[in-house]
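Standup notes
- DV: blocked on the single-chain target, sequence here:
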Amino acid sequence: MRKNNRPSVSASRRQFLRKAVGGVVGIAAAPYVLTSQALGAGAVPPASERITVGMIGMGRQARYSNLKTFLNEPDAKVLAVCDVDSWRLGRAKSDVETFYSRKAGAAAATRCDAYADFRDLLARDDIDAVMISTPDHWHVPMAIAAARAGKDICCEKPLTRNIAEGRALADAVAREGRIFRTDSEFRSLSQFHRACELVLNGRIGRLHTIRCEVPRSDVACPLQPTMPIPADLDYDLWLGPAPWAPYTTKRVHPVHSYSRPGWMRCRDYCDGIITNWGTHLIDIAQWGNGTDRTGPVEVEGRGTYPSDGLWDVLLDFEYTCRYENGVKLHCVMGGAFTQFEGDEGWVRATFGGRGFSASSPAIAKSPLGSAAIRLPLKGEKRDFLDSVKTRQATLADAEVGHRTNSLCHLGHIAIQVGRKLRWDPAAERFDNDAANRYLAGSPREPWTV
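- DV (later): unblocked, structure below
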């Protein structure tokens, strides 16, 4: 394959997409058998009875968070890693093998297999579950392929690039009978858990307003020159379902580095902070509002895009949604919190800083009795592994993750259309034809699930 020759790349990508994306990575569905690895056996089960995990995508988030967490869970065993960047892949393989060697001794060291193509990892019948930590545009194709291959799935947020993708994902996971965890940790943070329990138990009275603020971090970047593709990177496979574009470092990720990647600010691969941080705080809004599996009925918003350049996500935005029960949700750039306001007070949960605050000590310290609504509190990886063993839904399954992501997309669509829109959360359709054209992504995007 001649990576720097555009006609050759386009032809190879067409062949790849027919095989990989046309059938959402055409792997035949098969009946699932709960293997011994998935059963678990006490706090520190023997290696043969652990949940076996394959890690797909070994970039910044995987290296600093996801891989370490799975390695430290006593009933999980990482058997394989996968990445299209061979430098990252080699480091991930070494990290896994070093960890297990130090833990069990060299004589009992565990081999970790490394794959450039995720389909090779999914083809293994000794892997129970996968952790997907790739750029956003690959989440849904890989997750649906994993479901069809009989794997349970933990997938980074934002789950989807558009609402149609989310519906396809949630339906596929349900159809294949898989366990799915949207890998957002905010339901596992005590301040967000506490705020939602107080709201659901009426401690602020009737809820009428939710305010979410997400950090300001997206910036513009001028157009970049086309660069030679690094020898370490399979750029065709990195692009996958995205439109072809010439390689430049700030479109992908820094070479031999885990610093913040440019793809997070390119709308062919990610929608920027409106979904990246938005899904964290909106997920808590949905949880505390009791609307996990539905959505609002009205949305309007405004925002500003860069006038030109490589990075094209929103530089600032705000949007407002109204639910059928009358609750209004406002999402803007600013801090990093979710605040619930009722007719008897308010509670706020903040990422970092003060953590939890309330309008009065009485609300903040309000005890919850034995008959109160109680929400589980556990780490997101622990939640996933427990559900793999019990076959019960996780705290943020595919439908929940889809609805959270949809709410961010609704705001983004309203900004792009430039008018207030009515939304039917059951049919997942707008009252506006122009807005409905965005359900499968921006009209400039040629690919959908």
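- Follow-up: The longest helix spans residues 398-417.
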